[in-house]
Design brief:
By secondary structure, the protein is of the alpha/beta class. The chain has helices spanning about 15-30, 40-45, 60-70, 80-105, 120-125, 140-150, 210-220, 220-235, 285-295, 305-320, 330-340, 340-355, 360-370, and strands at about 5-10, 30-35, 50-55, 110-115, 130-135, 165, 185, 205-210, 240-245, 260-265, 280, 300, 320-325. The strands form two sheets. It has a seven-stranded parallel β-sheet with strand order 3-2-1-4-5-6-7, sandwiched between helices. The protein has a six-stranded parallel β-sheet with strand order 10-9-8-11-12-13, sandwiched between helices. The chain starts with a strand and ends with a helix.
Length: about 375
Amino acid sequence: MGSMRVLVTAAVPSHLMSIIPLAWALRSMGHEVLVAGKADVTATARSAGLCTADVREADSGLDARRKAAAKPVSPDGPPDWARMADNWRARVGNVLDSYLETARQFRPDLVVTDPIEYSGPVLAGLLGIPYAVHRWGPESLSSDALPHARTALADLGPFNAPSAIVDPCPPSLQAPEATPASHPLRFVPFNGSGTVPRWPSDGRTRLCVSLGMFGFSVLAGDGSATVLEVLAGKLAGRTDLDVVLPVPAEYLEQVRELPAPVRVVPQVPLNTVLGDCALVLHHGGSGTALTAATFGLPQLVMPQAHPALASCAERLFKTGVARETGAEPAEVIDEVLASGNEAGRAAELREEMLALPTPAETADALTREFA
């Protein structure tokens, strides 16, 4: 089997992170991999040692205008497909020419795309090549949205159904409404690069509070400080706990000094922290949830209104690996640590994940299928 050229597309850095282990596996087999996208996506790819191509926008001010005009999105009720269709047409149309220019130069054999980066399917249709959707975690939005997106974007070029669906979410955690995956994949955490922290162990039970980049962006401004200050206030004075809160550099000034046992630390790769933790408290992000699951850790979740976060939290609750923080998080923490129920289910989920095909095995299957 000869070398393949694989073009990777993603709408946001957090979605690209779930694809990076597969991209590494493809590279290790000798295939060429190029990540194309906006500057924040390609910066994440370069931090992982991958080659990139920055995508230019036809209208550089479009994103700012879209965000200013955006309406709050509720997890309740049916999606506003008409509004989403307008958004997809604007976003894809703004970058499609640049994607196409990059692809014609790179000449890919396969596109691997984040489920909501619809430039990938349109690009694959224009080039006459297959594309694989790579999910980011528990969700059904991509399955529900696909027929609406195909209709909305039909005038931009051929938009076929995906040739493959790669899913790093273990089946028991995945939303039952999601289209079945053709290629289940073992989740391998990539939470960015950085130095492994060396924090002293003094016998206290360590908890990690992880909001990730997306969580902090959702709770940006006064909201992020308020949520964290309330949480820290509920835990203040606990001498049996060591609560570690990694904060991205751009939000450090917004997060004021919090009372012990909460320690604000600079952002570090989450997988370098969780080996010493007994519990993870987070915002419902899929990357954090699946990283915690690889360590077999019970989880506490502060559900948010954003649909992707809310749906992930719902699946964690239904599978029994997580509890909601509630009004008294200290009490919930004590209950989870004492009962062991969530820890037991988390250990089972970890074993389920370890039984899934590795990125190397999935890369081999994909390239044999589309070579």
